[in-house]
Write a structure and sequence with these properties.
Pfam families: TauD. Its cofactor is Fe(2+). One of its GO terms (molecular function) is dioxygenase activity. This is Related to Putative dioxygenase C576.01c. This protein has a single domain (about 1-395), classed as Double-stranded beta-helix (4-Layer Sandwich), CATH 3.60.130. Helices cover about 15% and strands about 30% of the residues. It has helices at about 20, 45-60, 75-80, 145, 155, 215-220, 225-235, 240-245, 320-335, and strands at about 5-10, 10-15, 30-35, 60-65, 85-90, 110-115, 115-130, 135-140, 180-185, 195, 205, 210-215, 235-240, 280, 285, 295, 305-310, 315-320, 345, 350-355, 360-365, 375-380, 380. The strands form six sheets. Strands 1, 2, 3, 4, 6, 7, 8, 9, 20 and 22 form a ten-stranded mixed β-sheet that branches. A hairpin with a 2-residue loop joins strand 6 and strand 7 (about 115-130). The protein binds fe (ii) ion.
């Protein structure tokens, strides 16, 4: 079945991914270049090009540009600004690669490109003399260290992998998340396809190291009317220094949350923090290009408590029991985790993928051993918090 061709501009034609790839995900369009085949240069975009790209991302959540080998690394942050007039010119994870051993974000041994410090290099395997970086030993996550019940030897032998952590790219402390994330594939592992088994027994084949996406809009649609109302009225409070807090906590097998309470770091072992820098976000996020379409956006591993406001009276109810908070979030999120709702991007070298970080969840996958993988990742700090799909009412006095 041919894929639908969507709006065009002088530079771009937006083409929906094929129905076989899109399934029921609501995700995915390819951006075809009308005039050239080389890497894109945002400084040449006309206002019509920008508005077509902007809306295409709000409509499709993930945009794919093929054959972008040689793209200027500085072009990635310029592209990010298309979706964020309040963008601050710093990677949302900070000016430098996170090196604090207390943070799980330091475990992948990533680096920043010397010529473009907002480009984070992530992946797997050893690299020498890469773009001015003398040596990198990049680490992809492995089920053995990540899941409470890791893949067994038998499951690994039959090519199974898992979702690791469904998340948005969000520091959850001090720095606001980027509206979009961009990933450029430089080196893609050449391994046989792997597969993920879902809780209902269904299986999904995917490329080793594929990045998986779920639409927060689809997740919201699958909630009951009562759950939708709850999501629209609730704010999710994240834990102080959430990534340091869960650094020794193991994930559920589906990557949605933390398997049990009690493995969190003690407060005194966290880096210094104060509540005014700890972030809380709406449970249902506003999509500026589709204002009627709420997106359920929860970082299940990092939740701390929930605050629900009655829209009629403004009365606030707080749930601060950690097990109950996690259970509620998990029940709301798990419905969507089915093969028909997951878009797994099959990376080709040269791909540039831009995703709506305020509209989708993503997870890495793959058992890569020592096989090389190298990606550039950019997600720029925003100056503005995620907006609620429904503004929180003010208490009636
Ligand atoms: Fe991520």
């Amino acid at each position: 079945m041919p894929s639908a061709t969507l709006p065009t501009s002088p530079l771009f034609t937006i083409q929906s991914l094929s129905p076989e790839l899109r399934k029921e995900t609501l995700i995915g369009a390819e951006v075809l270049l009308n005039t050239s085949n080389g890497p894109i240069d945002p400084s040449s975009f006309k206002p019509e090009d920008i508005s077509v790209l902007r809306q295409a991302l709000y409509d499709n959540s993930v945009l794919v540009f093929r054959k972008q080998q040689g793209i200027d690394p500085l072009a990635l942050e310029k592209l990010a600004s298309i979706w964020d007039p309040d963008m601050i010119n710093v990677h949302s994870a900070g000016k430098d690669q996170v090196r604090d051993p207390r943070s799980i974000l330091s475990r992948n041994n990533g680096a920043r490109l010397p010529v473009a410090p907002n480009v984070q290099v992530i992946g797997n395997g050893e690299f020498r003399d890469y773009d001015g970086i003398e040596y990198m030993n990049l680490r992809h996550v492995d089920s053995a260290e990540f899941h409470a019940q890791p893949l067994t030897g038998e499951e690994l032998a039959e090519g199974q992998t898992r979702f690791y952590r469904w998340h948005q790219d969000a520091p959850l402390y001090e720095n606001l998340p980027g509206k979009v994330t961009l990933i450029h594939a430089v080196v893609v592992p050449k391994l046989p396809d792997q597969k993920i088994k879902f809780q209902d027994g269904k299986e999904m084949n995917l490329q080793a190291g594929s990045t998986a996406f779920i639409s927060g809009a689809k997740a919201f649609q699958l909630l009951t009317p009562e759950e939708q109302e709850f999501a629209l009225n609730t704010t999710v409070q994240y834990a102080p220094r959430a990534y340091e807090w869960i650094r020794n906590a193991k994930a559920t097998s589906d990557g949605l949350g933390i398997a049990k309470v009690g493995e969190e770091a003690r407060e005194e072992d966290l880096p210094a923090w104060s509540w005014d820098k700890v972030q809380a976000f709406p449970m249902a996020w506003h999509n500026p290009g589709r204002p009627q379409q709420p997106h359920l956006q929860i970082l299940g591993c990092c939740v701390h408590s929930l605050r629900t406001t009655d829209p009629k009276t403004g009365e606030v109810t707080v749930i601060d029991d950690l097990a109950e908070t996690r259970r509620i979030c998990y029940e709301m999120q798990r419905k969507v985790v089915k093969p028909e709702h997951v878009y797994a991007h099959h990376w080709e070298e040269g791909d540039l993928v831009i995703f709506h970080n305020y509209g989708v969840w993503h997870s890495i996958t793959g058992q890569l051993g020592s096989t090389q993988r190298l990606m550039w990742q950019v997600t720029m700090r925003s100056g503005k918090e995620p907006e609620a799909a429904r503004p929180v009412p003010v208490k009636v006095q």
